[in-house]
Write a structure and sequence with these properties.
It is a single chain. The chain is an all-alpha fold. Helix content is 89%, strand content 0%. It contains 10 helices and no strands.
Length: 347
């Protein structure tokens, strides 16, 4: 049976389903705590300054606290739980990716040992070494950031959206409308960044293969005095990689600046919108609700940033997985060919 990316991941997740559920459950709880913390700060403002509103009951749906002493105890517990669940969320996600990478590289090594020596005559060993370095690292990031943490980020955004909608429907529609426009703009720029990433990776892989093959043939190079020629070839590839790197980090820097600018622009519009509402009705948007709204928006930054960069993780992971699956497929085709030859000779 020919393996695909889907069957490879499904078999792993099915085998370690308890571990996957634990990581997922931990991420969900951590997301809920991340939402409750800014809401609880709004509750503190409400208790300390005796601010209230018809929508103030929304805060009480999370917890019922009537005194500041109870709030401080509850907030201290939240901080402790946040630290614990953040640790286990990241640890379990990393552990799953490490375990997947471990099993894949062991299977890869076993597969490559099964090849005939003639395979290595047609293809330099440096090409096979690339599967153990960049490809396995990309696949590990794919499992950790592209599968586990991506699912947790989506859940967090859903929780955040629900909370913001309860606080103020109009403000949430304004904020998410701008966020969607910026998301598509950043998505288009990220696609171009993906192409640069693939080009850089291909050049880096070619350079690694070049260095490996030349070091294996070092005595031949010295015997025929080919050092200047080989150095010239390597310098040309190095210059190409440098130019691609400059283009990449220009765009990466622009994207990194565009994300906080977009978010703070949304916050500025929220301030302006709330000010206009206060001019019309002072009790329409109380200060503690505005505080919660802003803090929830700020908590979206790391999750939004990861969601924008996840396409790069997916792209690199898909390329690496396809390369390793080709090795598995090659071995299967080889065994089928040998089996067919035996059957033909027998009959």
């Amino acid at each position: 049976m020919v393996q695909t990316k889907r069957t490879l991941l499904q078999s792993f997740f099915y085998r370690y389903w308890k571990l996957v559920i634990a990581a997922f459950f931990t991420g969900v709880i951590n997301s809920l705590i991340s939402i409750v913390i800014p809401v609880s700060i709004g509750k503190y403002y409400q208790l300390a300054f005796h601010s209230n509103s018809p929508r103030g009951k929304f805060l009480d749906s999370f917890f019922t606290i009537h005194h500041l002493s109870g709030f401080f105890l509850f907030f201290s517990l939240l901080i402790l739980l946040k630290g614990i669940f953040t640790f286990f969320e990241r640890f379990l996600a990393g552990y799953i990716s490490e375990l997947f990478s471990k099993q894949l590289r062991e299977k890869l090594f076993e597969t490559q040992l099964s090849f005939y020596a003639s395979v290595y005559d047609r293809k330099p060993a440096g090409k096979f070494l690339l599967r153990y370095s960049g490809d396995l690292s990309a696949i590990q990031r794919y499992v950790m950031k592209g599968v586990v943490l991506f699912s947790i980020d989506v859940i967090f955004l859903v929780f955040a959206l629900v909370v913001l909608l309860f606080i103020n429907l109009q403000m949430t529609a304004l904020a998410f409308g701008i966020a969607i426009v910026m998301f598509f703009l950043l998505y288009l720029l990220n696609n171009y960044l993906q192409r640069l990433t693939i080009k850089r990776r291909n050049v880096r892989s070619e350079m690694l293969s070049f260095v490996t093959s030349r070091l294996h043939a070092i005595f031949t190079i010295k015997a025929f005095n080919r050092e200047p020629l080989e150095k010239q070839k390597y310098t040309g590839s190095s210059e190409k990689l440098f130019k691609l790197g400059v283009r990449y980090f220009k765009l990466f820097g622009f994207l990194s600046a565009l994300i906080p600018i977009s978010l703070y622009a949304v916050i500025a519009l929220v301030f302006y919108f709330s000010h206009q509402q206060r001019l019309l009705d002072r009790a329409h948007f109380p200060a503690h609700e505005l505080l919660v709204f802003i803090m929830v928006l700020l908590s979206l930054i790391p999750h939004f940033r990861r969601l924008l960069s996840v396409t790069l993780v997916w792209q690199a992971g898909n390329v690496s997985i396809s390369k390793i699956l080709r090795i598995f497929k090659h071995l299967l085709e080889h065994f089928v060919s040998v089996l067919n030859s035996i059957v033909l000779e027998f009959f």
